[in-house]
UniProtKB/TrEMBL annotation:
Belongs to the DapB family. Pfam families: DapB_C, DapB_N. This is 4-hydroxy-tetrahydrodipicolinate reductase. The gene is dapB. It comes from Parathermosynechococcus lividus PCC 6715. GO terms for molecular function: 4-hydroxy-tetrahydrodipicolinate reductase; NAD binding; NADP binding; oxidoreductase activity, acting on CH or CH2 groups, NAD or NADP as acceptor.
């Protein structure tokens, strides 16, 4: 192998997976080691994606790929943007074989993340789980933390395509968690509320912050953090128009994870 970082892309034919394949192939310091998906097994992933032959056949078995990766003389990274029901076992398998996971799939429970962190600690393996790999979203969260010093009322609206399996989004949950970590009591009650339709006021997240989820075709990934006080509303919004915006963050995580000895949650911890 060269000095390039070998990368396994799981869910290589998915919306995010195909962008990761192209980003890894074009970056000077990464190399596509394997592509895993349930479809087009044995076919060249580049030809299936229409980007030209990459001489990497699609595999249907992550375990077989991890077994081969365990024999390499340099660290191998797995990037996973698959379904929430699959990613937990994928990460455990990767760590068990000495492959460094980078995960963008949301929907993992708090207990699952804690279990994976413990598993990574015992193996002294780096792992990165990030609800969002967009640098712009990290900056939005930082701006929200700053704004929270001056506003007591805040709600979150997240909008995604209607093929997203989990709600609310991991990014919205993480945003609420980061605000709640400040220890400030948000949204003190003004009246006794009554919901005439269950869920009308959204979901209660950390810090007594409400999250509202929208799922519609035509959307990709969008989030608003809305602060309110007497006489003013302050809105922070991030819009995704192309999934390429996540690739700088993914590549950053690939480069960083092989130097870690534990699981890191959140892209902001790598910046």
């Amino acid at each position: 192998m060269s000095m390039q970082i070998p990368v396994i892309v799981v869910g290589a034919l998915g919306k995010m997976g195909r962008e990761v394949v192209k980003a890894v192939q074009h970056a000077p310091d990464t190399q596509l080691y394997a592509a895993v998906d349930r479809h087009h097994i044995g076919e060249d992933v580049g030809e299936v994606l229409g980007v030209g032959a990459l001489e990497v056949p699609l595999s249907g078995s992550l375990q077989e790929v991890c077994v081969a990766a365990a024999q390499e003389k340099q660290p191998v990274v797995m990037v996973d943007f698959t379904h929430p029901q699959a990613v937990y076992e994928n990460v455990r398998m990767a760590i068990a074989y000495g492959v460094y996971p980078v995960v963008g799939t949301t929907g993992l429970s708090h207990d699952q993340i804690a279990d994976l962190a413990e598993f990574a600690d015992k193996a002294e393996m780096g792992a990165v789980i990030a609800p969002n790999f967009s640098i712009g979203m990290v900056l939005l969260q930082e701006a929200a933390i700053r704004a929270s010093q001056y506003f007591d009322h805040v709600e979150i609206i997240e909008l995604h395509h209607n093929q997203k399996a989990d709600a609310p989004s991991g990014t919205a949950v993480q945003t609420a968690q980061r605000l709640a970590e400040l220890g400030k009591p948000f949204n003190p009650a003004q009246v006794e509320e009554t919901e005439h339709l269950a869920g009308a006021r959204g979901a209660h997240a950390s810090g007594n912050i409400r999250i509202h989820s929208v799922r519609l075709p035509g959307l990709i990934a969008h989030q608003e953090v809305i602060f309110g006080s007497a006489g003013q509303v302050y809105t922070l919004r991030h819009d995704t128009s192309d999934r390429q915006c996540y690739m700088p963050g993914v590549l950053l995580a690939i480069r960083k994870v092989i130097h870690l000895k534990r699981l890191i949650y959140g892209l902001e911890k790598l910046l």
